[in-house]
Specification:
heterodimer, A: 329 residues, mainly alpha, ABC transporter involved in vitamin B12 uptake, BtuC, B: 262 residues, alpha/beta, Rossmann fold
Amino acid sequence: MKGKAILLYGVIFLAVAVAMPWIGPESLQLSEITHFVQDGTSADAAIFWYQRVPRVLLALLAGGTLAVVGASFQVLFRNPLVEPYTIGMSGGAALGAFLAISVPALWINWGPFSTIQLLAMTGASASLALIYYLARRPQGMSVYTLLLAGVTISIICGGTILFLSYLASPHVLVLYHRWMMGGIDVVGFRDLYALGPLLIPGLFLLFYHSQDLNHISLGEEVAMGHGVDTKRVNRDIFVGGGLSTAAVVSFVGPIGFVGLIVPHAVRRMSGYDQRTVLPCSFLLGGAALALCDAIARTILSPTELPVGIITAIIGGPLFIRLLISRRWR
Amino acid sequence: MLELIDIQHKFPDSDWSLYVPSLNLSCGELLCIIGPNGSGKSTLLRIAAGVLAPVQGRVRMKRQDLSRLNRRAIARQLGYLPQETASLYDFTVEEIVRMGRYPHTTGIGSLGSSDLDVIRQSLQLTEMDALAKRPLSRLSGGERKRAFLASVLSQKPQILLLDEPTEALDIHHQVQFFRILHDLAKDGLAIAVATHEINLASLFSSTLLVLSQGEIVESGPPDKVLTPSTIQTVYGETVLMGRHPQTNRPTLFPKATPENNK
């Protein structure tokens, strides 16, 4: 059953990964693309290798990460409605992005990062650190304070953005608004490498503690009785999920619903063992976002729709369906 | 096996405090802790299990300070079952019991054949083998308790600390539960149980400990400890005492109201 679930989601993931680069406003010729490997000059090949492939890869990675963080946080906070952005990371990221858009003096390019990415990441990491500081207790982190601090920081960042946007020019507002809708705009592989420093350690921590989370879902004291160092696991899951979310949100903006729904959908088939839920969530989350992004870039062709709109429009009703079927926990 | 030395604990913003100068739990002992609600039974067990760090004092397991050992090392020798066991997800009984093997595994926790043997034994001992594939949501309260006991037993601990394990169990399973504990103690385990079942505690325990307002009032064999006057002072309830027909252990009866006396 568990092996079957991973296999099924793996096949979906691969199918999406192979098929999605072919979908877009321009239709591509297979012969032109393979041709490129030999001499390196053709419009089709350039679109395929420098736009479509990196974009699909980023969607797979971002969607997968959001789903994995969602699946872990739902256990950590013992709350089925938590998604990666619940703990206020997107608020900090949004504030950073807003500053990057509205204050030209801040425009810098450092390494592979753009200004927006850099400041969004800084904002997300700063709110992560602040929440962690607020929720620290001598006997370990308080999960409830984490949640409350996260929500509060979101509100504070939102308020600050409202204030700044009141002063800002309409042009800035349009750009910011567009950023908030989330979008996977990527050219070349640079952005994919840039994700690495935060994403790799983040995901590693989440997968490393997947078994421990099973025990924590039985209650913290039962987990401790079984031999789980809950203090450390709670901290690592929070930091790991936070780093991963900071990486994703600064590159693709706040894309909602993937991190909320995918884990619920996965658990219905894979059971509740986090060791199965996490890989399945990654595979299905990646496939779902890549699929949504393919819709986003074709539905209003030749213009593109921000993918965040698609995930919300498709995700909302899907979640209601899960709610109605009552087995969503 | 397990020593509590000079334990003092206070919760912030509360007058209540626990004071246990010294308590020993040795191999083959079945220690039952009784006392009214809020007397500190759970807190005492949580401190003994190392789940709660006391404000003052030390807990030593086999002459090692509990606070110096990591959780996994503790769990290999000490099983602790808290009063509340609310699972977020609808695991099956078998999955819960398998989780008890955690301290003995490494990596992603794959189980070998010896682990599976232990799991089967724990399921049999708690009479849960027939329900192994059932999800928690389809168990009764008592069956849930037994599933979690099986999970703790599959840790193969030498020390067992149980917090009101027979709450919500019917009389057969309550008695069964204490019989299991009695047998485990005979096999050399050191067991401490917090319970409200005074008569069962009297019948099966080797030591009875009476806790009231965070302090040990009496401690010793049930014969010595269990007297109507102790119960009167601790619980504020006048009771009559008889003897168990087979074992002669003290047994309590509630006092009847006059109109029932006819």
